[in-house]
Amino acid sequence: MFVLDKKEGIPFYVKIREALRAEIEGGNLKRGQKLPSEEELANQYGVSRMTVRQGIADLIDEGLVYRRHGVGTFVAFPHVERDHSRLTNFFETASKEGISVQARLLDLEVSPARQRIAKALDIAEGDLIIRIKTLRYADDVPVTLHEAYVPHVLFVKLLEEDLETQHLWTLYERYGYRVKRAVQKLEAREADHELAVLLQIEEGAPILFKERVIYAEDGTPVEFTYCYNRGDRYSLTVTLER
Amino acid sequence: MFVLDKKEGIPFYVKIREALRAEIEGGNLKRGQKLPSEEELANQYGVSRMTVRQGIADLIDEGLVYRRHGVGTFVAFPHVERDHSRLTNFFETASKEGISVQARLLDLEVSPARQRIAKALDIAEGDLIIRIKTLRYADDVPVTLHEAYVPHVLFVKLLEEDLETQHLWTLYERYGYRVKRAVQKLEAREADHELAVLLQIEEGAPILFKERVIYAEDGTPVEFTYCYNRGDRYSLTVTLER
Which candidate, A150, A207, B44, B146, has a CA 20 to 30 Å from the CA of B214? Predict the structure, then answer.
């Protein structure tokens, strides 16, 4: 066990940890860059590999670096951290954190609702829905593929709107439906070929998948969404009460 | 566009969908089993591949089957669905769903707290913590690796308890700390070698990762946890209000 005694100086592993942190924050070690090996760091700082490992363990805990088994330790990219204690949208969260956000419209089409989506939106199977498929960027990096389905009968005017600069929720509100509540299911999945290409990641890379139904104040389900978030750039925070 | 007209009979894709559903629910197609190819199904039912695809799309939406790019479509395993509208524990949720749950204690040790964990638990770096590492099974399948860290000073008696049959929260309560609130961060990650072995999945498979701090009614942080859930067997549902 180590002792934190100011008179004795700080422990070696804390020195290593803070030295690495300074290298990362100062930009000498860039995001995505591989750290020198434990052996190289041990030689460089004149400490044991165990001490190096202890220092790095703290940085992994913090999320500043991450380890890939058999490959090495890398400087992490900052995540878009969504606070899901309250229902917020991507644009609200990101802009609060000073992240620049963009949306690119990939597809906009009217088609008959499949079973699952019809059920969720409380319409009949085969009723028309509008599918709005957008790719969302945080600081110019594609982070989320967003596929929203909305009842055509409620939001036919959406088809004439600029969906890259206006947020869907703002538009729903303009048409009389104020977003109030969302029920969402979260899963970890693998990126398929399409996602890998769009999100600029490898096929099989981890995706934080959300499926959600959004309800207006009067209880009307206004949107069913599939949301595919890059695992290495996206995290969610939730506060729960017992 | 298709029309749902009872007089005309049901559309072909619905017939395919319901036939496949019956095969799965009846057990002719088992969990994890690959579905016949679109071509085989098209021949079998005398319909077009497009019709087969449409029927399968509904089952994918529902989560009854899943597609692996370039490999095929498979019958899905049931997920442990955790409802996170309220703070519940794995054992409460699973037993409510009729899933049999077991915990296996992998490791129990006392060690000095690393920086991140000390901060979260509001203790000093290097203060003693108890690490409780358990593997959790749902219906005999390993689903979650659970690593809890608790302050030694609060819960020294835990070391004498049977941690496989009693839930941690019950024990905290016995020692005067009633669990009230949790703040948790969710991410999608890749399984490393250790996780792959423990959870019986492939290295690199998706993991729903949770990091959380649990607070007692008086605000004391009682537990810091890393929780690694198999992506193919675990999903979370959250309800959010604006």
Answer: A207
- Contact between residue B69 and residue B82 where contact means Cβ atoms under 8 Å apart: no
Global pTM exceeds 0.90: no
Give one word for A87, left, alpha or beta, with left for phi > 0 and alpha for psi -120 to 50.
Answer: beta
Domain boundary among A59, A75, A91: A75
Instruction: Spell out the residues 6+ positions from residue B72 whose beta carbon is closer than 8 angstroms to its own.
Output: B34, B35, B37
Cβ atoms of B108 and B163 within 8 Å: the answer is yes
- Do A205 and A142 meet the contact criterion of CB atoms below 8 Å apart? no
| Chain A residues 154-173 with a CB less than 8 Å from chain B | none
Q: What is the CATH number of the domain that holds B186?
A: 3.40.1410.10
The A residues from 171 to 230 touching B (CB cutoff 8 Å) are 179-190, 192-193, 203-209, 229
> How many cross-chain Cβ pairs, A to B, lie less than 8 Å apart?
175
| Structural domain for B60, as ranges | 12-75
- For A34, which DSSP code? B
pLDDT in tens, chain A (242 residues): 333 334 456 788 888 999 999 999 888 898 889 999 999 999 988 889 999 999 999 898 888 898 887 788 999 887 777 776 677 777 777 777 778 889 999 999 999 998 899 999 999 999 999 999 999 998 889 999 999 999 999 999 999 999 998 889 999 999 999 999 999 899 999 999 999 999 999 999 999 999 999 999 999 999 999 999 999 888 888 888 87
Tell me whether residue B7 is in a domain: no
Domain assignment of residue B6, yes or no? no
Q: Are residues A66 and A99 in the same domain?
A: no
Q: How many domains are contained in chain B?
A: 2
